[in-house]
Amino acid sequence: METYLKTNETHMFSDLSLKTVDSDKYVENVNDKCKKYFACDICGQKRLLNKKHTHNQTKEKPSSYAICNKEFPQKSDLSVHYRIHSNDKPYSCDVCHKDFSGKSTLNVHFRTHTNEKPFSCDVCHKEFSQKIHLNVHYRIHTNEKPYSCDVCNKEFSQKSTLNVHFRTHTFEKPFSCDICHKDFSQKSNLNVHYRIHTNEKPYSCDICHKEFSLTSSLNEHFRTHTNELPFSCDVCGKKYSRKYDLNVHFRTHTNLKPFSCDICHKDFSQKSHLNVHYRIHTNEKPYSCDVCHKDFSRKGDLKVHYRIHANEKPYSCEVCHKDFSQKSHLNMHYQIHTNEKPYSCDVCHKDFSRKGDLKVHYRIHANEKPYSCDVCNKEFSQKSTLNVHFRTHTIEKPFSCDMAPWKPILVHRKKIVFYYRSFISCDVESHHSCCDMRFRMIIAFV
Questions:
Q1: Mean pLDDT per segment of 10 residues, for the chain of length 446 residues?
Q2: Which pLDDT value is given to residue 401?
Q3: On the CB side of 249, how many CA atoms lie within 13 Å of its CA?
Q4: Helix, strand or coil for residue 108?
Q5: How far is CA 156 from CA 139, 167, 429, in A?
Q6: d(CA 267, CA 270)
Q7: Which of these, 156, 228, 239, 433, has the minimum number of CB atoms within 10 Å of its CB?
């Protein structure tokens, strides 16, 4: 027998006839303070009205299933639950023929075809096809996060999100790609990954029509048109269009380098930099120039190289208006005007404008000569010096003087400067003997 619980003594339920009153309308119209509840003596379940409660008449305990021991208030619920274990799906969708174990589940699914969303949020008016989705959505407005991680105590609004998060601690990746066998912690990530193999790009930019496989990638790309930089560094105030770029930038302040080379143990702040670095060990150069077929290990280096063929120099010095094909070359050139030498030797305190020059200079103190001549085995600290030396064996002289074009070409570019200074006071057309003598001195010096 069910016990009647009165929440307000002034309102008597006995005045209403259960035969004539619409229970749903009654529940909607009755004030919350006046609601009447029935509590079951067997299972303790509370109901607004004395609706059908199967085990009330039989005095039996709630039905349970022997396999999973899950309990149900009604035998019909147990019957529906049994279909999960038997994989029985008697209800089929007329549109897509997908099968379901329960009729209610089929009804919910059918809304995906009709785009019916009967449940609406009172706050933001967003609509949903299922009430449970609306309930979960409400937590955005209430900031309710009832599910907490036992390991790191991070809180979540959905249990499914907690389950996915927990895999970060267990390193569980239950979803695997059938093609490349890469594993993923989320099925959604696997579905997105499949687009790499199918080359599917369902999201297109309305402005430039560039296509993307992810909607997040499209949103990030769209900021290149709007020049929107929503992510800002708390330390230096630098702004970025992508949160990922901000996270990578932040490592410059923390000096965090989480990616390490297995061969030489050099650390990197970005995984992409590590991947490029690996090519030093493997000598892999996957990017090739279509014009001269020169190979490069980085795509960026190939793009810069293309400017040689196109004679493109997009970077110009504001002081002397000299043009450069690379921004790094412009920055180095600019130090000529500022006389800036930010790199200093720890041994002799000599200053340099370029970091590469400092590294080469260090070899003087270490007596390091990593470049050796294949002909005479003479060693050099710089590759450029080796190249100049090698011309003494090949008798190659690629540099010519414009003032005396009939003379042999010189071995080293720097000797041209010295030769010009010897030539500057000489009348080229009438004093050939003087020039010949000076030229022979230059050749002997080289």
A1: 38 38 44 44 48 45 60 73 77 89 85 88 90 88 91 90 90 92 90 90 92 89 90 92 89 90 92 90 92 90 90 91 88 86 91 86 89 90 85 71 49 46 44 45 41
A2: 53
A3: 16
A4: helix
A5: 10, 14, 89
A6: 9
A7: 433
Instruction: Check the CA dihedral 424-425-428-431 and report its sign.
Output: negative
Tell which residue, 420, 423, 425, 400, has the closest CA to residue 411: 400
How far is 263 from 278, CA to CA, in rounded Å?
9
Give the C-alpha separation, 378 to 210, whole Å: 55
DSSP bridge pairs for 128: 119
What is the dihedral angle through the alpha carbons of 430, 432, 434, 438, rounded to the nearest 10 degrees?
A: 140
The C-alpha atoms of residue 396 and residue 406 are separated, in whole angstroms, by 16
Q: What three-state secondary structure class fits 242?
A: coil
Whether 81 is in a domain gets the answer yes
CB atoms within 10 A of CB 436: 12
Q: Count of CB atoms within 10 A of residue 42's CB? A: 16
For 115, the domain range is 73-144
Give the Cα separation of 86 and 101 in Å (integer): 10
Domain count, the chain: 1
Q: How far apart are CA 109 and CA 127, in angstroms?
A: 16
What CATH number corresponds to the domain at position 104?
3.30.160.60
Residue 124 within any structural domain of the chain = yes
Question: H or E stretch including 6?
Answer: strand 3-6
DSSP 32: G
- Helix, coil or strand: residue 150: coil
- Classify 45 in phi/psi space as left (phi over 0), alpha (psi -120 to 50) or beta: beta
Q: Which two tokens stand for residue 389?
A: 């030396």
Q: Which distant-in-sequence residues (6+ apart) come within 8 Å of 181 by Cβ?
A: none
Residue with tokens 């299972």: 43
Residues 6+ apart with CB under 8 A from 328: none
Read off φ and ψ for residue 326, nearest 5 degrees.
-125, 145
Is 358 inside a domain boundary? no
- Pairing state between β 119-120 and 99-100: unpaired
324 and 338 Cβ atoms separated by less than 8 Å? no
Among the listed residues 105, 107, 110, 115, the one whose alpha carbon sits nearest the alpha carbon of residue 95: 110
Residue 344 pairs in a beta bridge with 351
Strand blocks (E) in 253-392: 259-260, 267-268, 287-288, 295-296, 315-316, 323-324, 343-344, 351-352, 371-372, 379-380
Looking at residue 122, its pLDDT comes to 92
Residue 304 tokens, joined: 């810069």
Q: Is residue 106 part of a domain?
A: yes
Residues facing residue 147 across a β-bridge = 156
Query: Distance (Å, rounded) from C-alpha 322 to C-alpha 371?
Result: 33
